[in-house]
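thought: fold this chain, then report.
action: predict
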Amino acid sequence: MQRSVYHVRAYNTALASENKIHDDAVATRFGFRGGLVPGVDVFAYMTQPIVARWGRSWLEHGSAAVRFLQPVYDGEQASIIAAATDGALDIEVRNPAGALCATAHAGLPAAVAPLPDLGNYPLRALPAHRPPASPESLTPGTALGSLISGFHAERAPEYLEDVRESLPIYREQRVAHPGYLLRNANFVLAANVALGPWIHVGSDIQQHGVAGDGASISTRGRVATIYEKKGHRFVELDLLMVADDTRPLMQVRHIAIYQPRDQLTGK
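observation:
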């Protein structure tokens, strides 16, 4: 088994976010030492050894199952440790104390995964007024309004710097980083329901293609399931990102605690 270690000085890109779990003062109410570096950015760090191994092929049809176990904090040095076998990479993110913060299992299947049927992910308008996130507004099967965004290669360097991305493929080939795409999974949830502080805890990802310069990206999907565990309320979303209304890019099972238990009140 081959091992590699990649070090990143973590950066909290979400200080101005509507999601105040990234704010130091609010995050301490929920038992954290400070504001959380977004999980989608921790995922971006984790893709470095994946894309270093498989390159564009992984961006086009690779897969990853990612789980966030405890926070990565702004300014900390995160160690991304990749253990390679013949057909997979197992990745850990550890903080300076050596504690395990996140895991991923990534692969590049020999057979390309079938493309999802776009008819199962129709475009829908975003709600004019977001209802509060609740079991009623997040009933399983509820269709989500679609989020429309874009990728512009000339604006990408700022994002790549924020996530400490050093691989040349994104700059040279002018394609979107998978962490940039996964941000849309967070954004579409927040565009459909009004949330308090909330936490992204995992994503199961199947790549289907790359977004090139100028691509219009629609993020579509539905609520897959909701449940409660240890006082936290969870939602899982079934999402598909589509380029130019015709080409699937990334299919995601996106998992979040939409209502965390408040450590101060116990509610």
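thought: worth noting. The helical segments are 24-29, 39-54, 56-61, 156-162, 169-173, 178-192.
final: tokens above.
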